Amino acid sequence: MNIDSTKKILIASALLVLVLAGLNAGILIFIRNIGMSISTLEGEVVTMQAEVTQASKYKPEELQRLADSVAGHFISRSGFVGFIENLETAGRANRLAVTVHSVDVQPRSADAEANKADNKEIVNLKLETKGDWQDTIQYVRYLEHLPYKITIQNLILSTVVEGESVGGPVWQTQI
């Protein structure tokens, strides 16, 4: 082999080693910069999570429980039959005879577009109870303390002439 060709191979090999070392150093610097950016972003995420946790005094499970509680204060279109049955059951539990005379359901808003997204309704009830004075007053108190917006527009209390119960006269309530 010739010395000239050996020098050329040696020079080419040295240049190749220098180019590969430069590429290796460039790739390592690029990876280090990406790693530092990721580390900085992770630190920002942890800081933001701490701020959100500190700003919210409720955990996600508690927020869901609160949301369910708020939703329980509204009667959906499919739930007002159960609501009426609960009123009747509560009346019977108070030893009252409860008769529902009419149920009028109206939307919360007169705007038809708003009603499409809103599944809540206003339920107007006309009902009658018969029973003892104390049971009747306790049932009216029960109605007033339901977790719904209750408006009693007309309440008529009267005694029934037909008979008396064990504790005194039978009271009739018309709501």
Give a description of the structure:
The structure is a single chain. This protein is an alpha+beta fold. Helices cover 55% and strands 22% of the residues. It is built from five helices and four strands. It has a four-stranded antiparallel sheet. The chain is rod-shaped. The chain starts with a helix and ends with a strand.
Placed side by side, the strands forming the largest sheet appear as: 1-2-4-3
Radius of gyration: 39 Å
End-to-end separation in angstroms reads 117 Å
Q: Helicity level, as a percent range?
A: 55-70%
Beta-strand portion reads 15-25%
Label the structural class. Answer: alpha+beta
Shape: rod-shaped
- Unreliable stretches: none
The whole-number mean of residue pLDDT values reads: 80
Give me the strand/helix succession: HHHEHEHEE
How would you characterize the largest beta sheet?
4 strands, antiparallel
Number of helices: 5
Q: Number of DSSP strands?
A: 4
